[in-house]
Amino acid sequence: MARINYKLSEKTRDNRLKKQLIENGFHYVEQALKSGKHNYSVHKWYAILLNAKSQFNSSEEQIQNTFEIKKHFQEAIRLNPTDAMSYYFLGIWHYEVAHLSTWKQRITKLIYGESPQSTIREALKYFILAEEIDPGFYNKNMLMLVKCYYELNAKPLAMEFAKIILEKECKTNEDQEIYNEVIQLIPKIKKLKTFKGQMG
Questions:
Q1: Quick check: 81 and 88 in contact, CB under 8 A?
Q2: Is 71 found in the same domain as 7?
Q3: Is 35 within a domain?
Q4: Do 153 and 89 belong to one domain?
Q5: Domain span at residue 178?
Q6: Model pLDDT for residues 62-90, shown as the tens digit of each residue
Q7: Residues with Cβ < 8 Å from 141, sequence gap 6 or more?
Q8: What whole-number distance in Å separates Cα of residue 190 and Cα of residue 188?
Q9: pLDDT tens, 92-131?
Q10: Mean pLDDT throughout 2-20?
């Protein structure tokens, strides 16, 4: 039920309905966790829905949940190290933290004595692991590889994964959105200058 509610929330543009669906999904997975169900899927969906739920909260609450979200993704991977999707979502966590604004970092450190830290390279590591476990399993994972390689100025690798995405058939609206995003990234990737000894 948690997964169904989350998937439905991704399809609607009505923010009130989206919030309700996410809260419903979170309620189911929270109850599962409280009842002692500690399989990888429960931890993964708890983290996914807590992150989604946080988007409707204040900045302080979002920051407060950051460490909790990471902990549950890590536990999901510990319980099932072959679940590519868990690595993808942990990669997203690192990617978002790497882009966390300076003022949010300062607030977190002020309130909690520490702030979440990460880099694009750390995020990339998890997207690569996900792809190694299940090649081509999720277009969004390949999109994140393109984005990370682009930000790391790794032109050949960014182009490699961009071409894979563009050659795939778009079967869903999400596939089409990813395709369009890659199309917009291509000119930026082409402008990258590669240097000797550089990644890619």
A1: no
A2: yes
A3: yes
A4: no
A5: 138-192
A6: 777 888 999 999 999 999 999 999 999 99
A7: 84, 88, 91, 127, 130, 131
A8: 5
A9: 999 999 988 666 666 666 666 666 789 999 999 999 999 9
A10: 89
